[in-house]
Amino acid sequence: MNNSIAYCPYCSTPYNPASDIPCCVNCAKPLPKGEITTINCPTCGAPIPSGLQSCPACGAAFVPNAGSIIIPEPPELTAQLPDLPTLPTLPTVPDLGAAGEQTVEPPKPVIQPAPAPQPAMTQTVQTPAPQPVKAPTYQPPMAQTVQAPIYQPAATTPKKLGSKKALVVGIGLVVAALAAFIIFIIPTSSISEGGSSVGGTSSVREPSGVLTGDNKTAYEYIIASKDEFKYPESIEIIGGSLASDGGCLFSNIRYKNADGDIVEELYYFDKGGWCLPQEEDIYPFYKYTDELDLDAINAALEDYYS
Q1: Residue 213: how many CB atoms within 10 A of its CB?
Q2: Does the N-terminal or the C-terminal CB of the chain have fewer CB atoms within 10 Å?
Q3: How far apart are CA 6 and CA 20, in angstroms?
Q4: SS3 of 240, please?
Q5: Is 305 strand, coil or helix?
Q6: Would the pTM of this model clear 0.70, i.e. be above it?
Q7: Is the predicted pLDDT of residue 197 greater than 60, yes or no?
């Protein structure tokens, strides 16, 4: 064994295992000593110490399956390692035990399905259309014609009427015709619409009460211009007075028009009609007399529309 050749198991450098060389001359790693078992390279047949992964002669790589290398125990190291510094003692963590390791799971939310929307019930309310109230129209009595009886002579043998009897019959016919004219024709032609004056010449009916002065003037203004209020069914004065010059009526008027709407407006009457005034148009130019007698005027208006 003194002439045997071994190879470094780290770098495959050949060496004599019987020599006293402790380390490889190439890699400076410790070399095995003692009896070495070798195998032959399957490629070139060179002896290879067991433990090598490739043949040092031909370089073929293989996996050794036989042989072993006996490596003696390494000598004990006599060098003393320096003392390591003492680490500080960590505080002891108390053991929580089984009671301290309880896991609380949050409750799972319960999702309820939302109720299906119900369609809202719709109700159709039909409001009856307002029916205009038409004031009754005055109907004059029908004229009846009274025919005077015509004298019929007896069916006996005709006799020649005397002049005296013919005169009596003629006077009777004239009297009958005159009576019919007085009874039926004259009263019918003398009645005017909205009033009781003879001949129909007056367009304003006299009030049932006695109105004088400004009250009578205000009443006549309102009746004469009633068409300005959209053909009203009724008119009521809430407040107002005549101007000092007698030419204008300033008043608050509430009336019900033909559509059935109750309207309350401020008007003044001037030169042929009612107008909605502006404040600057009224107050600087007119000085008003005392307040009108509204109760008397409204009573007359109510009598007019009744």
Answers
A1: 12
A2: C
A3: 13
A4: strand
A5: helix
A6: no
A7: no
